[in-house]
């Protein structure tokens, strides 16, 4: 938790310095999340140049993630749809390879907003079975056009276990990470 606080503090300091110098880009983006379950993401970003080739891009994204599980229990097939909604905070370092094209890498910190499990059409709140904080690594690429439109591809690899270690349920006691691919389109100015 101390590392997360330190990372956020450093990011805020860099952004504040860039605002004072007037060198930054702001934007909005949205697109699908692709994994075991198709979801979406929507949010805002700020790109802060550090040098000609390197910039820092913190984002705030609402992200719908999760998985679908099919299992058999005493001969009956059961389908479970698990929907996990997060407020994600990627803090990406960007390396500008060519004009408009950049590679991205950095931590993704997620705060669980909502967790819902749907079994055979019946929904229930399942937030108690999942950790409130999720940590991962984002790696990807983006292309910015001269008019401010951009597209990006990213893979977020989960590092931490999303499930709580509850003695009450064997079903949720396994270890899982959030691993999703994101396709985004957006506009920055």
What can you tell me about this protein's structure?
An 8-stranded antiparallel beta barrel has the order 1-2-3-4-5-7-8-9. The chain is built from 1 helix and 9 strands; from the N terminus they run αβββββββββ. It has one helix at 2-21, and strands at residues 25-34, 39-49, 54-73, 76-98, 101-119, 122-125, 133-144, 149-158, 179-188. 11% of the residues lie in helices and 63% in strands. It has a single domain (2-65, 86-113, 135-188), classed as Porin (Beta Barrel), CATH 2.40.160. It is mainly beta and 189 residues long. Residues 33-162 form the Outer membrane protein beta-barrel domain.
Question: Main traits of this protein?
Answer:
9 strands; Porin; mainly beta; 189 residues; eight-stranded antiparallel barrel; Beta-barrel_OMP_2
How do you describe this structure in short?
This protein is mostly beta strands and 189 residues long. Helix content is 11%, strand content 63%. The chain has an eight-stranded antiparallel beta barrel.
Question: Helix and strand layout, with pairings?
Answer:
Elements: H1 2-21, E1 25-34, E2 39-49, E3 54-73, E4 76-98, E5 101-119, E6 122-125, E7 133-144, E8 149-158, E9 179-188
Protein name: Outer membrane protein with beta-barrel domain
Domain Outer membrane protein beta-barrel: 33-162
InterPro entries: Beta-barrel_OMP_2 (IPR025665)
